């Protein structure tokens, strides 16, 4: 079976966008939420997370601001833009179509 980073590579942007629908979060918080919601099955390392966040910013789907964390540290908090909110719906629908297509192939007899 392939490394789980292979799976995340194609879905990380959507996972981040979906996570940010809950509330603005800093990078570590995003990775922790993904791990928590996936019941520990998905772990996002910093080497994948921060390039994805930059990519999403460049696409205008998220923006950021520096705030103070609950531990009294400064951190960059990311939040969805209006375009990001629209993208969550569109990309979720596209992902579900893709999953159905893969399931059809896996269920071949």
Top keywords for this entry?
109 residues; alpha+beta; Arc Repressor Mutant, subunit A; three-stranded antiparallel beta sheet; globular
Please, could you describe this protein's structure?
It is a single chain. The chain is α+β, with helices and mostly antiparallel strands and 109 residues long. The chain has one domain: Arc Repressor Mutant, subunit A (Orthogonal Bundle), CATH 1.10.10. The protein has 4 helices and 3 strands. α1 packs across α3. The two termini are 21 Å apart.
CATH superfamily: Winged helix-like DNA-binding domain superfamily/Winged helix DNA-binding domain
Ends: how far apart?
21 Å
- Low-pLDDT regions: none
Structural class: alpha+beta
Helix count equals: 4
Structural shape: globular
Strands, helices and their partners?
Blueprint: H1 4-20, E1 25-26, H2 27-37, H3 46-58, E2 62-68, E3 74-80, H4 82-106
Antiparallel strand pairs: 1-3, 2-3
Helix pairs in contact: 1-2, 1-3, 1-4
Brief write-up:
The chain has 109 residues and is of the alpha+beta class.
């Amino acid at each position: 079976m392939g490394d789980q980073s292979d799976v995340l590579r194609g879905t990380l942007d959507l996972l981040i966008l979906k996570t940010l629908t809950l509330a603005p979060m800093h990078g570590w918080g995003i990775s922790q939420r993904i791990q928590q919601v996936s019941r520990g099955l998905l772990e996002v390392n910093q080497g994948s997370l921060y390039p994805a966040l930059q990519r999403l910013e460049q696409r205008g789907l998220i923006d950021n601001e520096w705030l103070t964390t609950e531990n009294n540290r400064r951190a960059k908090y990311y939040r969805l833009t209006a375009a990001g909110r629209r993208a969550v719906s569109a990309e979720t629908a596209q992902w579900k179509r893709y999953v159905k297509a893969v399931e059809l192939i896996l269920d071949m007899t």
